[in-house]
Amino acid sequence: MRSDLFVVMLPADDGERFAILWRDQLPIERFARSRSLEDVREAYRSCLASAAPLTEAGVRAQLAGMGLPNDDIEDQIDRARDMQAGFRDAFARGEIVWESPTRVGYRNGHGQQLIRKTGLPGTLPLQKVYVLKCGSCGHEYGANGSDVHSRRCPACQDGVAGLPIQ
Prior knowledge:
A hairpin with a 6-residue loop joins β1 (5-10) and β2 (17-22). The chain starts with a strand and ends in a 22-residue tail after the last strand. 31% of the residues lie in helices and 20% in strands. It has four helices and five strands.
């Protein structure tokens, strides 16, 4: 099977739609430089938005026109359907949540709410410092963006000391 392209399913109200994505045109550089989950999502959304939505017949014709053998075309379409079904099932089971921990207003399971972004560099590679506020005691402290989802308050929940926020 060719490794320079892959087929994905796109959301559509009127049946299945597919798109052909070229690996060398994916915004990998933007993914690698991304500072937040929102940046990665936006880069991927932008990539999908630029892809032409095709019916199954359309994607089959385009892949055949590129010289892909029928077995590879079947594999690409089956893989796209399997990925879509896997995501749908994982969402239904609650295993995937699209709420972003670095969105202002996000509240994690320990009652810590993200109240602002600082733009300051975090203590981990590619991380920024975000300000959290404890829902129990009101304490405000900094945390790396990658830690927001699991942080506990350093003042009242025995959490790790916060990062500087100024």
